[in-house]
Write a structure and sequence with these properties.
Elements lengths: L1 E7 L2 E7 L3 H10 L17 E7 L2 H9 L6 H14 L5 H7 L23 H39 L1
Antiparallel strand pairs: 1-2, 1-3
Helix pairs in contact: 3-5
Length: 160
């Protein structure tokens, strides 16, 4: 999703998000960074240079939302949340964020009862993940109900 480059003095770390928080903490320790992942601002500091590059469209979307108030733990959590919410790919989710007429999410719009988040940055992205998950759950529920009704109709016809 995201390539991450972190420089601490002369030590450099290259890693990819998402990954486990304890793995990231261990990797940071290997370049002399002993702070908690949640205490390190995602934009870096005077002594810690951090660069993030999306490896695909969804990675670019996440990177574009990283703000000055976000920390590395926030970014990792966002990556995990998006990955969990989109097990079959990111096209519908990305289209929900940036709608296009007859785009990938267009079909699912009628199942979206939450509406877009008003928050910016990573917190807004997390709310959008919740919105997307709720829309997909509603779609699944409706499909299951229709399938059950159709099955019931077939059973009724068979009994006649």
């Amino acid at each position: 999703m995201i390539d991450v480059f972190i420089e601490n003095g002369r030590n450099t770390l290259h890693t990819q998000f998402p990954l486990r928080m304890d793995d990231l903490a261990e990797q940071l320790a290997s370049i002399g960074v002993r702070q908690s992942v949640a205490q390190i601002t995602a934009k870096g500091t005077d002594t810690l240079k951090i660069e993030m590059e999306g490896l695909e469209d969804i990675g670019n979307e996440i990177v574009s939302r990283v703000g000055a108030e976000d920390n590395l733990a926030d970014v990792v959590r966002a990556c995990h949340a998006v990955r969990r919410a989109c097990p079959y790919g990111y096209s519908e989710f990305l289209d929900m964020l940036h709608p296009e007429e007859n785009g990938a999410f267009h079909f699912y719009q009628k199942y979206d009862h939450m509406g877009a988040s008003s928050k910016e940055g990573i917190p807004g992205l997390i709310e959008e993940v919740v919105r997307y998950s709720a829309a997909m759950s509603e779609y699944t529920r409706v499909c299951n109900e229709e399938e059950e009704a159709e099955s019931q109709n077939l059973d009724d016809e068979w009994e006649r």
